[in-house]
Amino acid sequence: HHGMRIAFLTDFDLSKARPYLLDNRKLNAPTRGVQLRRTAVLSEVELHGVEWGTIIMGFEEPQAPGWLRLCSNGFYLPLALEGHEILLPRDNLAVQNRPGPDAGSGPAAGNSFT
Length: 114
Hints:
This protein is mainly beta. It is built from 1 helix and 9 strands, in the order αβββββββββ. The protein has one helix at 2-8, and strands spanning 18-22, 33-37, 45-51, 55-59, 67-70, 76-78, 80-81, 84-85, 87-89. The strands form 3 sheets. The chain has a 5-stranded antiparallel β-sheet, with no helix packed on it. 17% of the residues are buried.
């Protein structure tokens, strides 16, 4: 079924793709990261998640404001949770340093995803 997913990606406008950092510093969630959503709806939860501190490639779609669509699989992540930004654009990756430990989860973080 992997080939089907690749074909499904051909309608993407990859020219708009940018790197984003999944950042937990504002939200301070006690989780390992954020679960992917199949569509731009919070309840449409996918099994997989993205861990805090990860840089992902994605793009925003006009028909799904407030959401980032991932280039890798076509799933969605919310740009903010509970009013806190969790996806920060990282346009100049070469210039910026890798996020420090504070961008990710601390040792007290749980194994669940938000």
